[in-house]
Amino acid sequence: MRMPVLFVGHGSPMNAIEENSFTRTLETLSEKLPRPKAVCVISAHWVTPGSEVLAVEKPRTIHDFSGFPRPLYEVQYPAPGAPDEAQRLVDDLKLMPDHHWGFDHGAWSVLKHIYPQADVPVFQISLDQTRSFESHLDLGRELSKLRDRGVLILGSGNLVHNLRSLNGKMDAQPFPWALEFDEKIKTAIEHRDEKSLASPDRWGASLLANAHPTLEHYVPILYCMGSTSEKDEIVYPYEGFDYGSISMRMVLFGNQKEIT
Ligand code: ZN
Fold first, then answer.
1. CATH number for the 5-259 domain, one of 3.40.1190.10, 3.40.830.10, 3.40.50.300, 3.40.50.150?
2. Mean pLDDT over the full length of the chain
């Protein structure tokens, strides 16, 4: 069976230890999704020169943030790695194996809610900062075969992500540009408009600059698009904005009949 592909807008690291409508949605996903053999995470929080694949047996939990309460630093996510699957990707796609990274919070703050027992093997692929948007889509296409091997592809970023414009209130009204960019991306995903997704500045350089002052939270959706096709139906298990400038939209691609 071909596995679905999931994009999660992860938002604040605090979601790892809080309970809210977003985390409750993640919890229900584990019941809906077919159980994967492994999860391949493409996270906004691992950016490297060249595409690297986490190929260790017992990845460490990385607390890659600062200024948060102590309980967040005490979270461990002890899922096993998937070094065989990682090595297969390294060999097939000529990527670089990595033995130093672990699970960054783009991975564990989400997986902690979907698979709280940490009993599904997980590996990550880094975001190669030298690739073009088109090239990220191409690598996503290469990853699509993972789905037939029982691997769940999980893109973890945010479709709108501007930390400079954060409103102090989590439930603040979204900024007009946040709503506009989120809607543009949603429409492009639904039309499988990869041309626009590979050149999001076509919607206006200032709109893109507002939505993504830096681009790392945007790129993971390109892997989800690349690894899916028009055969995959699209649903949004969760949508909304945190702090006015962070889109929390989730996108689930796959045969919805098989996602119970
Ligand atoms: Zn993030």
1. 3.40.830.10
2. 96
